[in-house]
Description:
With 241 residues, the protein is mainly alpha-helical. The chain is 68% helix and 0% strand. The protein contains eleven helices and no strands.
Amino acid sequence: MSLLLWGVLPYVSIALLIAGTFWRARYDRFGWTTHSTQVHESRLLRIGSPLFHFGMLFVVLGHVVGLVIPQSWTDAAGVSDHTYHLLAVSTGAVAGVAAAAGIGILVHRRFTVPAVRKATLRGDRLMYTFLLGAMLLGLAATILNSTGATGDYNYREGISIWFRSLFTFQPDYHLMGAAPLAFQLHVLFGFTLFALIPYSRLVHMFSAPVQYLFRPYVVYRRRDPKLTADRAARRGWERAR
C-alpha cells in the first residue's frame, strides 16, 4: 500500500495532469475558461477572488521552498532550523488563512446565490471538495506540527526528500509512509487535485497565471434600448443614414 500510494500514485496524477492539459489545449480550446459568473454576482466575488488567488500564490511559493530546497542549502546560508520554521509557519499561516477565507467566500457565494448555483457544474463540486480538503488538511498539519502534536517530526527530513526523489524516478516511498497522518492526507488530496486540474475550471491557471492576478474584471453593460430598437427596425442590408 505504501508503494502504491507514495511510489505509483504521484506519477499517475502527473500523467493525468499532462495528458489532460494537452487534450484540453488541442481539442477543447473554447472550454478552456473559468466559466465566469460575475454577471450573476460581483460583490462577494470582488472580496473572495483576490483573497484566494493571492493567498494561493504565496502558499504555492512556500511549498516550492519547503519541498524543493534542501535543508543543507539553508544551513549553508546561515539560516538556522528554528528561524526557518518560524518564517515558514508565520508566512504560511497568513497565506493559508487568506486563501482559505477566499475560497470559503467563493464557495458560500456559489451555493447561496441562486443564479451562481445554477451555473455550477458537477465537476465544480468535486473540484471544490478536494481543493477545500487539501487546504484545510494543510492548515491542520501545520498547526499540529507547530504545537508538537506530531512529535519532533521534521518534514524537511522526510516529505521533502521523498518529493525530490520523485524527480529521479526512484521514489523513497518509505519516508512518506512514515509521515504523520495529517501530512499524508494533505499530500493525497493535493495529488488528486493535480489530476483534476485539466478537467475542471482550474485549468485557467496555465493561461498567463501571473497576468491573470492583475487582470481587470469583466465589465458587463446593457445595450441602449433606443439603439436596440433602431437596429431591429432596419433590415440587415440597409445602412444607417
